[in-house]
Inverse folding.
């Protein structure tokens, strides 16, 4: 796994010292709030509705047991004993005190972590496939490229004041688990004539104007990646609109200038800067790649696993739902649900984080991942260990068997925390998840993604949900708008609005009518919601949401 | 923005981040019971004064309230959540987020 080099370590420490001095000056009154605010945001510190919030970067969602244990310690010591995993593969602490934040950052630096570029109009934490380096369907581990981009973009002098925030996602598999088409730049490893290269997608984004990214280059040699990405950001830096915050993202730049113009400009800029890339980046990439070498695989007897699978129905159900094929057939990828029925999606207590750290160290090559669906992944678990892993997870209240099902809901913090929210999202997620647990129907329903955002900014990815829920404010009252048919994968699509919104009291029954009604629309028991929606169109689903005998709100 | 007849001024404590309310003594208190209820016009004036205390409290703003009981009640959900804590915490961590507990800090 990747370790910071000395330069990185010193840079992170320097930033903490610098911020500590800034906090001191703010507390003493030497800095005004207006002066301090941009400084704290540069260090991932927000002020939310009723507390500060510290957003910690987890580059491409990868961490080890020691880092997870440190996050637990930070949550216990300086927060309220928990942390919140987000769709950006980050963790947020919801209750830090200002004077403690430098100590929290120091504690993060002790394990090679930080909160830099988690805010502001910079290139943000590069996200990736949570199964990177493990998935059976993977062409190439995307994390070395993600790390190269992280090193290149961190404190890049040209790109600290972009027109707007800039998000890059990388996937190494044809099955896109990194939502690359909803990012400013999406990179997908592809094969052409036996060589592995990158498909480059630009202009995707969610928020107020959702757009699916478009392919600007269908094959790029790996060695051209950095100059090409730099060319994209550079063209955007010049053309991107700084006059209007809502039109400043690259998706609008692409939309207004057209893909072809963008491509011409990018290619021209690329030709210009390419000679400046003398191959040092390739040496760096080779170095990084070596550090991402797979663990030394062990072969072990799977008899215990096979026996437990055959005889223990609860374990079997968990295996069937929460495991994904590993590229090594003796291994499995475990997705740990941080979505216990009725709980807050993505919230893990200090004890749970420590349990996860222990499990990773004891049974799973000391690796953990955070997924964009706010769950934790153990990417390399020998099958022989699965039963013990499951038992340990059960002891930590982390063995819910619901990955990819109706209760595996993504929800942004919404009005319970976020200063920008127009409605709550967490309680809606909690109620939907509890309701379907009561109905005991989620395994019959099959794969279904519900995603909830508490305002138009779409942090909860509702646009790319099979069922998206957007919380709005209608004259002081929460109103929830439903979208249908969104897709976050390689066949990405923006969901379509189903009809009028629902009140806070109506939204959970409406979702229940929709999902339970869908059971009767299935062509075969295996048909999933999105497939049925694509086969049938919106009408039968709208009829479920808005039955004739009911007057819509 | 519709002008409410009854308002309080709220902000976030600089050091702790928690919500505080402007009092009749022109200081800040974490106890809504201490909040001074102001007309729209008075609130606008007091907000200027409140904003001079930014080394203590940040993000001062005017929130409409229902002043019919002894302790003012926020009329907007957002402000009620700021007063009482996030919905899941209200269920899980009630004693800690109750305004009285914060006041005692
Ligand atoms: C204090 C809390 C937060 C604030 C103030 C905030 C602010 C914003 C804003 C203003 C946007 C729209 C940006 C634009 O379109 O230009 C946005 C988008 C987004 N945020 Fe947040 N956010 C917060 C929390 C979160 C959390 C907790 C997550 C992850 C769960 C998250 C992930 C995202 C994502 C994925 C998008 C949309 C994708 C995109 O268009 O880039 N944010 N956020
Ligand atoms: S979608 Fe809106 S409410 Fe939710 S976290 Fe983002 S900014 Fe806040």
């Amino acid at each position: 796994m990747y370790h910071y080099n000395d330069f990185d370590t010193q840079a992170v420490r320097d930033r903490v010292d610098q911020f500590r001095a800034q906090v001191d000056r703010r507390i003493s009154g030497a800095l005004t709030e207006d002066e301090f605010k941009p400084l704290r945001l540069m260090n991932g510190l927000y002020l939310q509705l009723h507390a500060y919030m510290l957003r910690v970067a987890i580059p491409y969602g990868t961490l080890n047991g020691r880092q997870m244990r440190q996050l637990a310690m930070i949550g216990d010591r300086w927060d309220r004993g928990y942390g919140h995993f987000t769709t950006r593969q980050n963790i947020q602490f919801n209750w830090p005190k200002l004077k403690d934040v430098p100590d929290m950052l120091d504690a993060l630096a002790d394990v090679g972590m930080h909160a830099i570029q988690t805010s502001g109009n910079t290139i943000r934490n590069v996200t990736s496939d949570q199964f990177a380096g493990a998935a059976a369907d993977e062409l190439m581990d995307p994390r070395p490229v993600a790390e190269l981009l992280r090193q290149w973009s961190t404190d890049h002098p040209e790109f600290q004041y972009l027109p707007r925030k800039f998000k890059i996602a990388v996937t190494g598999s044809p099955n896109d688990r990194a939502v690359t088409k909803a990012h400013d730049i999406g990179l997908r490893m592809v094969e052409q004539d036996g060589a592995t290269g990158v498909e480059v997608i630009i202009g995707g984004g969610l928020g107020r104007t959702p757009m699916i990214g478009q392919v600007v280059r269908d094959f790029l040699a790996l060695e051209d990646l950095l100059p090409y990405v730099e060319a994209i950001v550079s063209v955007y830096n010049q053309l991107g609109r700084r006059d209007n915050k809502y039109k400043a993202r690259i998706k609008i730049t692409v939309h207004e200038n057209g893909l072809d113009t963008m491509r011409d400009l990018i290619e021209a800029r690329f030709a210009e800067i390419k000679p400046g890339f003398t191959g040092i980046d390739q040496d760096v990439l080779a170095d990084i790649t070596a550090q991402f070498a797979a663990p030394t695989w062990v072969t072990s007897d799977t008899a215990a696993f096979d026996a437990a699978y055959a005889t223990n129905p609860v374990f079997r159900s968990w295996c069937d739902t929460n495991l994904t094929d590993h590229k090594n057939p003796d291994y499995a990828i475990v997705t740990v649900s941080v979505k216990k029925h009725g709980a807050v999606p993505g919230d893990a207590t200090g004890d749970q984080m420590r349990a996860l750290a222990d499990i990773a160290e004891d049974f799973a090559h000391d690796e953990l991942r955070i997924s964009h669906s706010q769950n934790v992944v153990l990417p390399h678990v020998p099958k022989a260990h699965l039963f013990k892993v499951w038992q340990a997870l059960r002891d930590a209240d982390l063995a819910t068997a619901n990955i990819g099902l109706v209760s595996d809901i993504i929800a942004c913090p919404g009005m319970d925390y976020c200063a920008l929210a127009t409605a709550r999202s967490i309680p809606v997620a909690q109620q939907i998840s509890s309701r379907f647990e009561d109905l005991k129907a989620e395994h019959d329903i099959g794969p279904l993604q519900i995603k909830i955002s508490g305002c138009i900014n779409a942090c909860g990815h509702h646009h790319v949900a099979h069922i998206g829920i957007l919380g709005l404010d209608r004259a002081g009252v929460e109103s929830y708008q439903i979208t249908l048919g969104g897709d976050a994968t390689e066949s990405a699509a923006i969901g379509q609005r189903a009809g009028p919104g629902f009140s806070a009291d109506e939204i959970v029954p409406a979702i229940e009518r929709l999902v339970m009604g869908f059971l009767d629309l299935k062509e075969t028991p295996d048909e999933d919601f999105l497939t049925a929606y694509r086969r049938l169109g919106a009408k039968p689903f709208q009829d479920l949401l808005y039955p004739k005998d009911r007057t819509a709100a | 923005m519709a002008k409410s007849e009854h308002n309080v001024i709220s902000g976030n404590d600089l050091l702790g981040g928690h919500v505080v309310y402007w009092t009749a003594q022109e200081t800040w208190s974490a106890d809504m019971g201490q909040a001074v209820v102001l007309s729209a016009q008075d609130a606008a004036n007091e907000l200027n004064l409140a904003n001079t205390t930014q080394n203590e409290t940040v993000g001062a703003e005017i929130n409409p309230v229902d002043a019919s009981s002894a302790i003012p009640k926020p009329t907007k959900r957002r402000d009620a959540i700021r007063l009482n804590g996030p919905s899941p915490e209200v269920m899980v961590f009630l004693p800690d987020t109750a305004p009285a507990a914060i006041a005692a800090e």
Remarks:
- Residues 90-105 of chain B have pLDDT under 50 and may be disordered.
